[in-house]
Amino acid sequence: MRLILASNSPRRRGFLQQLGLSFEVQAADLDESVRSGEVPTAYVERLAREKAQAVAGKAPGALVLGADTTVVAGEAILGKPVDASDAERMLASLSGREHDVFTGVAVAGPVVLSQVVRTRVRFRAVSAQEIAWYVRTGEPLDKAGAYAIQGIAGAFVTAIEGSPSSVVGLPLAETVELLRRAGYPLPWEAR
After folding, report:
1. CB contact at 8 A, 30 and 51
2. Of 163, 161, 126, 162, whose CA–CA distance to 146 is shortest?
3. Who contacts 40 (Cβ-Cβ below 8 Å, separation ≥6)?
4. What is the rounded end-to-end Cα distance, in angstroms, of the chain?
5. Angle, helix 128-136 to helix 84-94, in steps of 10 degrees
6. For residue 39, is pLDDT > 90?
7. What residues contact residue 85 under an 8 Å CB cut-off, 6+ apart?
8. Is residue 110 within 8 Å of residue 182, measured between CB atoms?
9. Could you say which of 31, 68, 86, 100 is catalytic?
10. Are strands 63-73 and 3-5 parallel, antiparallel or unpaired?
């Protein structure tokens, strides 16, 4: 069975490679706007499913994996920042507080299965100077919530409750389970 990752994320690709999975990459091109009244869990699950289904529609017989991650501070969904000042605003809103990271993961092929994983992340108090410096590195500019936990921003994190891989963009335990349930032959299973 062909496996396709519906994402250009190097982090997601890296996770699948670490698991020893053979896959292709065909990113889905979708409008990722939050719909009016859409709660974070519904938002990330919808996008993960839509990404997987969009690519599956063009690849008969393949199993397609889609994922989407967002950061939620209070009631605010923090997607990717539009510019440096937006990144600074987001990071300042996370400083000294806990927030949630939600990742939706979906597989589409003979069946469509999906799940949302919630991880709680705590940031230490981060100074305005640190935030400005971090934003100048360029790392946060294409990341949900304006940070990469696996990068420099790991220095801001004091605690994680839940799946660390989900914060990076792909909850591994849940992804493996969805692939198994969809009938994908995992490398460690007897054939």
Report:
1. yes
2. 126
3. 70, 72, 77, 100, 102
4. 13
5. 140
6. yes
7. none
8. yes
9. 68
10. parallel
Contacts of 11 (CB under 8 A, 6+ apart): 150, 168, 169, 170
Q: Does domain 3-181 have CATH number 3.90.950.10?
A: yes
Tokens of 17: 């490679």
Percentage of the residues of the chain whose pLDDT score is greater than 90: 92
Amino acid (1-letter code) at residue 106: A
Catalytic: 142?
A: no
- The DSSP output letter for 102 is E
Cβ(8)–Cβ(28) below 8 Å: no
pLDDT (tens digit per residue) in 161-183: 999 999 999 999 999 999 999 99
Which of helix, strand or coil describes residue 33? coil
Rounded to whole angstroms, the Cα distance separating 80 from 188 reads 36
Q: Say how far apart CA 127 and CA 77 lie, in whole Å.
A: 22
